[in-house]
Amino acid sequence: METSEAVPREEHEAVPQSGALGRWIDRAAIIPAMGLVIAMLILIQEVVLRYAFGRPTIWAHETTVFLCAISFVYGGLLCTARDRHIRVVLVYDVLPPAARRVADILISAICGVSAAAFAWAAWQMVKRAAWRPDGSFHLETSGSAWNPAYPGVLKILLMVALAIMALQFVILTINYARKGVR
């Protein structure tokens, strides 16, 4: 038995180069996934309440949109940890291993800088969505009849996810540079 071969990896798990952060992101993915299941159950309930009983809720739509948005935001983190982000595979797949290593390093570094810039831009949104002009804390609300603070919370979650994504890309850049050919 040869030990020099790479250990096969499932497509649905973090790449080794993503480190402990990537493994944590991969394991925590069950939480937003459960949010999608909860959103589906809420929508089923809403259909029954609306069409069977003529008693729709005022909270179902905004809650399902919020839960789905959380899942989409988390999806970016998960794609980063699993190295499933967008790349031009037509070019990437024909590169020799040494050139792929350089491409992985460059792609991860550029994506890290981009994610950090987007996190900073998200912070600009959070400042307006979480604080009043007088400096007191107040989350932005939806303005609907129910008026939850989902928009403010979602902007904070987006900023945190982008900051974590930037950190994940830094870890990937370092590990691709250190480990050599994958």
TrEMBL record:
InterPro entries: DctQ, TRAP_DctQ
Tripartite ATP-independent periplasmic transporters DctQ component domain segment(s): 40-171
Top-level taxonomic group: Bacteria
Transmembrane intervals: 28-52, 58-81, 102-123, 156-177
Keywords (A to Z) from UniProt: Cell inner membrane, Cell membrane, Membrane, Transmembrane, Transmembrane helix, Transport
Pfam families: DctQ (PF04290)
UniProt-annotated location(s): Cell inner membrane
Membrane-topology descriptor: Multi-pass membrane protein
Main subcellular location of this protein, as a coarse class: membrane
Family note: Belongs to the TRAP transporter small permease family.
Function recorded in the entry: Part of the tripartite ATP-independent periplasmic (TRAP) transport system.
Oligomeric form and interacting partners: The complex comprises the extracytoplasmic solute receptor protein and the two transmembrane proteins.
Official protein name in the record: TRAP transporter small permease protein
Protein species of origin: Paracoccus rhizosphaerae
Phylogenetic lineage: Bacteria, Pseudomonadati, Pseudomonadota, Alphaproteobacteria, Rhodobacterales
